């Protein structure tokens, strides 16, 4: 058993291995192949493409290119996650606060609800504008 492990380590030396993008593509392939049981063959074909792409990424020796792809994927995921977190925070605050945009610089400004007509000063550009909360 130890000999098989050594052979596998020698084979994988200098290769990319698993990273976040290859794991996501593997899971996507698995899910699409399970869905293809109940649907047509095109879903199975797309699942196989994801599977081969993931295997290609794991056994690739061009580590710099694979790392760059993974970094772009992680950046996209973090930006998407930030957008969802901001949206969820706005939904949680919708009963107690309103969000206005500055007419000059488009900065978002959060003010409490139920104060009537108020004068709002933008913290970014300093312009004042009147809104009803």
Gyration radius from CA atoms, angstroms: 25 Å
Q: Approximately how much beta-strand content do the residues carry?
A: 15-25%
How large is the count of helical segments?
4
Major β-sheet, in short? 2 strands, antiparallel
Structural class: alpha+beta
Question: How many distinct domains?
Answer: 2
Oligomer: single chain
Distance between the termini: 71 Å
Fraction of helical residues: 55-70%
Query: Spatial order of the strands in the main sheet?
Result: 1-2
| Morphology call | elongated
Please characterize this protein's 3D structure:
The protein is of the alpha+beta class. It folds into two domains: 16-76, no CATH class; 89-133, no CATH class. The protein has helices at residues 2-12, 20-36, 41-59, 63-93; strands spanning 97-101, 108-112, 117-121, 128-132. The strands form two sheets. The protein has a two-stranded antiparallel sheet. It has a two-stranded antiparallel sheet with strand order 3-4. A hairpin with a 6-residue loop joins strand 1 and strand 2 (108-112). Helix 2 (20-36) runs antiparallel to helix 3. The model has no long low-confidence stretch (mean pLDDT 89).
């Amino acid at each position: 058993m130890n000999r098989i492990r050594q052979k596998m380590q020698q084979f994988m030396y200098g290769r990319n291995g698993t990273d976040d993008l290859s794991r996501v593509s593997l899971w996507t392939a698995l899910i699409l192949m399970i869905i293809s049981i109940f649907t047509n063959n095109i879903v199975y074909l797309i699942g196989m493409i994801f599977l081969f792409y993931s295997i290609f990424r794991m056994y690739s020796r061009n580590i710099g290119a694979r790392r760059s792809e993974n970094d772009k994927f992680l950046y996209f995921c973090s930006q998407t996650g930030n957008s969802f977190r901001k949206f969820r925070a706005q939904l949680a605050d919708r009963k107690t606060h309103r969000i206005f945009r500055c007419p000059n610089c488009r900065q978002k400004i959060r003010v409490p609800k139920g104060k009537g007509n108020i004068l709002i000063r933008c913290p970014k550009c300093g312009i004042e504008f009147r809104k009803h909360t």
